[in-house]
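Look over this record before class:
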Amino acid sequence: MDGLSQRFERLLEQRNFATEALKALEAKTGVDKRYLAAGATILLSLYLLFGYGASLLCNLIGFVYPAYASIKAIESPSKEDDTVWLTYWVVYSLFGLAEFFSDLLLSWFPFYYAGKCAFLLFCMIPGPWNGAHMLYHRVIRPLFLKHHEAVDSVMRDLSGRALDVAAGITRDVLHTLARSRALVTPAAVAVGPPLPSESTVGNLLP
């Protein structure tokens, strides 16, 4: 319990959007930021359990702040924060892919969105216990190192086939346009105004 309390304290000492907002509220209200954070967590949990639009709120939590933090990481001179948020987006994309196939089933479970929100928060919290960092190095990276050559080979094969198909379609379209132009041009000449005959030219001359 003491270890969890210490982690919570260290988390509140981090400099980010949430902790800055808590400090501002603490200065205005006089309430300790630990109680403010605990109250906000309880209210968020209750809303995710019983409120309307829990899916939208959960997706906003998992996307809006990480997107904001990623932009700040891009603009900062340090590359360490870039790695942190790239790792988060890798985990987030794989989680979204898995959720796509299981959402219809899992969304009927009670506390699903509360658990999803807790997982996303776990993946974005700073520090050595960052969930995205742990999942990447313990699960995703070993699988990637084991299978990336086979995946690269498949991707090269698919890209080569896609280029061949695109080239074939382009060639067929150009041939069709060329044939259409060849057919239209003689017809346009045939329906043009008739040339004047010799007698007509003679009558016109003085």
Remarks:
- The CA atoms of residues 66 and 89 lie 8 Å apart.
- The radius of gyration is 33 Å.
